[in-house]
Amino acid sequence: MANSHLLLISIVLMGSLVAVLAAGNFNDLTEITWGDGRGKILDGGKGLSLSLDKLSGSGFQSKNEYLYGRFDMQIKFVPRNSAGTVTTFFLSSQGEGHDEIDFEFLGNVTGEPYTVHTNVYSQGKGNKEQQFHLWFDPTTAFHTYTIVWNANRIVFLVDEIPIRVYNNHESIGIAYPKSQPMKVYCSLWNADEWATQGGRVKTDWTQAPFTASYKNINIDGCVVKSGASSCASRSTDSANNAKPWETHELDAKGRNRVRWVQSKHMVYNYCADSKRFSQGYSQECKQSSRTHITDIVVNSETKKHDFASLSVLALVLLSPVWADNFYQDATVTFGDQRAQIQDGGRLLALSLDKISGSGFQSKNEYLFGRFDMQLKLVPGNSAGTVTTFYLSSQGAGHDEIDFEFLGNSSGQPYTVHTNVYSQGKGNKEQQFRLWFDPTSSFHTYSIVWNSQRIIFLVDNIPIRVFNNHEALGVAFPKNQAMRVYASLWNADDWATQGGRVKTDWSMAPFTASYRNFNTNACVWSAATSTSSCGGSKTESVNNDQTWQSQQLNANGRNRLRWVQQKYMIYNYCADANRFSQGFSPECKRSRF
Question: Quick check: is 100 catalytic?
Answer without folding.
Answer: no
